[in-house]
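Suppose you are handed only two things: the residues of a chain and a line of SMILES describing S-adenosylmethionine. What would the bound structure be? This form records exactly that question and the answer produced for it, so the two can be stored side by side and reused later without any lookup.

QUESTION INPUTS
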Amino acid sequence: MNESPFEWDLASNDYLQQIGPRLTRDYAGDLIERMNLSPECSVLEVAAGTGELTIEMAVRAKTILATDISDEMLGALQGRLQKRRINNVLTSKMSGELLDCASSSFDRAVCMFGIMLFEAPIKGLQELRRVLRPTGRAVISVWSTPDHFEMMQLFASAVAGLCPDQKPLDLTKNPAFTLSDSAKLKRLMKEAGFSNICIDTVSHLKNFASVDELWSILISATPPLFWFLEGIGIEHHNELKRRLHDQCLSKFVRFPLQLSSEALIISADA
Ligand SMILES: C[S@@+](CC[C@H](N)C(=O)[O-])C[C@H]1O[C@@H](n2cnc3c(N)ncnc32)[C@H](O)[C@@H]1O
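ANSWER OUTPUT
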């Protein structure tokens, strides 16, 4: 899957307000832990989005080049950097599959929840390795399998059977899960030339006080979430929200819900 930059442009506000804080922010520390950052490090970040990882790295690194394919996502990130008076981060629009960066020019290369969305993830991995100095290190995260992502399971079961001609959703086909197989991921990392490849699984729990909090995520324009609503007309939204509420109560009895999501975090030497 390769969503166009335009689709991510449309998602930038939802991402800034909802998706980053609720789905990806908790993992930034897990990536940083594995980066061995020092104040001398130059870092390339690919698919930086609205900067959940960028902002956490900024105080620990010398310089960061934060890149993304979407202007609007980078615009939102720039706004956050200005607000915090962070001045060691540059942003630049570029595809992670074809980086406009010199070879062997960074100490660290990172990508949080981006590479599985690329049309050819192997190209993204090869590019990350190309731009690293021989002593460099890459750290990447992707989502683990759908059975370890409770929110996505709730969304899929709420959508199932909603309309008479609705085909059952196969969560493994959601773009968020295209690199959930750790053996495949390790093979790709090796093919890209990395060594000392280590893959950990990390889970976080997030609280949801009401169905409204989940609903605002489901209807966000973020491509892997919009995937659930493709082909579902707005006239079905009230019924879908009611079904989502029922699914929440049948699986978890009462609100607030604590939903877990699991990621694979890959660290490797160039
Ligand atoms: C799920 S968001 C992750 C954002 C951020 N890293 C985070 O974890 O919150 C995926 C990001 O990948 C970007 N993206 C998608 N395809 C890309 C590509 N081929 N090259 C660079 N960025 C891409 C999108 O614009 C979006 O900002």
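WHAT STANDS OUT: The CA atoms of residues 43 and 260 lie 30 Å apart. The chain has one domain: 5-269.
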